[in-house]
Specification:
The chain has seven helices and nine strands, in the order ααββαβαββββαααββ. By secondary structure, the protein is of the alpha/beta class. The chain has helices at about 10-40, 45-55, 95-105, 115-120, 175-180, 185-195, 210-220, and strands at about 65, 85-90, 110, 130-135, 140, 145, 160-170, 225-235, 240-245. It is about 35% helix and about 20% strand. The radius of gyration is 19 Å and the shape is globular. The protein has one domain: Vaccinia Virus protein VP39 (Rossmann fold). The strands form two sheets. The protein has a seven-stranded mixed sheet, sandwiched between helices. Strands 5-6 form a two-stranded antiparallel sheet.
């Protein structure tokens, strides 16, 4: 039986890929920092979300954070890590996870499938109160096994504290996404959206932000009382950043 020997060029390629990832993500972070400092009104969705939560007094006093699609952490984690008492990051790509371990040394960084970890009950805690779901902008991923953030529910709710803040990407309009990913199985995506939101297929192609908020209020009502919900628009109107505060002990 032959043993697999890593060729030196394989090691070099991996090292180069790691440094390219590191440089790309650091560059994006530095550019974001420069723009948000130079132009006071220019804020990232996470910065806007934190401002809203603080203004409404909805931010947990001791933040137990769970980041399920972390990448290196430089896109979202970097903007709230100073608030946390506990930070748990999941990233399936080893190179990005390695970057995360460098940038956030106090965090628990796990290189694994976060959705599978949630569904199998393999998270490290069961009292998270600040959950960030920055799922990929391609709606079907991992060989179309997963769709948006739908496969996390209801399993994820069982692992959060009685009061928890959820932040997640939501697709308001499918048209720009279709244009960006021409090979996407649109029929499958629409069926998944229809099943998750509990409405007809033809109704899930486009939502206004207020309609999307209403849908999530209805969906989360089965888990407790929704104390607050809103959507922050990202750069374009097809993707929104949903903020939802759930009180599991509230009236259902």
């Amino acid at each position: 039986m032959r043993s697999h020997i890593l060729h030196p060029t394989d090691s070099i390629r991996k090292t180069l890929r790691f440094h390219k990832t590191l440089i790309r993500e650091l560059s994006a972070r530095y550019l974001t920092n420069f723009l948000t400092k130079k132009f006071a009104r220019l804020m990232t969705p996470m910065q806007q979300a934190l401002l809203l939560l603080e203004a409404e007094d909805l931010l947990p006093r001791k933040v137990i954070a769970l980041e399920l699609f972390a990448r290196s952490g430089l896109f979202t984690v970097a903007e709230y890590h100073h608030l946390v008492e506990w930070l748990e990051m999941y990233e399936i790509d080893p190179l990005s996870a390695r970057c995360g371990k460098i940038f956030f040394r106090k965090a628990k960084v796990l290189t694994t499938d976060s959705i599978q970890a949630v569904r199998l009950g393999n998270l490290l805690r069961d009292d998270y109160n600040f959950i960030v779901i920055d799922n990929p902008d391609i709606p079907l991923y991992c060989d179309s096994k997963y769709c948006e953030h739908f496969d996390l529910f209801p399993y994820l709710v069982d692992r959060v504290a009685d009061y928890a803040v959820f932040m997640m990407n939501v697709v308001l309009s499918i048209e720009p996404v279709k244009a960006k990913y021409p090979g996407l199985d649109i029929a499958r995506w629409l069926r998944r959206r229809s099943h998750f939101y509990g409405i007809e297929v033809e109704q899930v192609r486009r939502f206004t932000p207020s309609r999307m908020v209403d849908l999530y209020r209805t969906l989360f009502a089965q888990y407790g009382a929704v104390k607050y919900a809103t959507i922050i628009l990202r750069r374009h109107t097809e993707i929104g950043f949903l903020i939802l505060c759930l009180d599991k002990k509230g009236m259902r």
